[in-house]
Amino acid sequence: MPPRADHLTREVVELIGEVVARYYEEYDEAAAKHSLTGAQARVLGLLSSEAMPMRRIARKLKCEPSNVTGIIDRLETRGLVERKPDPADRRVKLAAATEDGRRTAALLRDSLDFAREPLGELSDDERTTLRDLLKRMLGG
């Protein structure tokens, strides 16, 4: 089925774009308060929940692995991230948030009000519906 180009679809796409732009703007502002770039903050956020190889980080961020290497280098210099061997394959290095990195990621997450405030105005059923629709849009 070809993509729809009707007025409603265009309006929804524009609204999604606006939400994403506002999220990244606030994320970048929050990151700057911790002397981080937005990209560094996003990597730190990913690593705060689990260690992962740099190729996987690059896939999640949709960027080149060489870019991720530079970001990890800078985060490592600040003591927020460390590299360690993958227990399943010692040839692979995992990037992992340090305790300080996890603490910084939590502070960043807690300072992001943009998404939380409007979502707080939605009921649990509305948030569940929105979540399910977004997952469906992403093929999940």
TrEMBL record:
Domain HTH marR-type: 9-139
Pfam families: MarR
Keywords: DNA-binding, Transcription, Transcription regulation
Designated name of the protein: MarR family transcriptional regulator
Species whose genome carries this gene: Streptomyces enissocaesilis
Lineage summary: Bacteria, Bacillati, Actinomycetota, Actinomycetes, Kitasatosporales
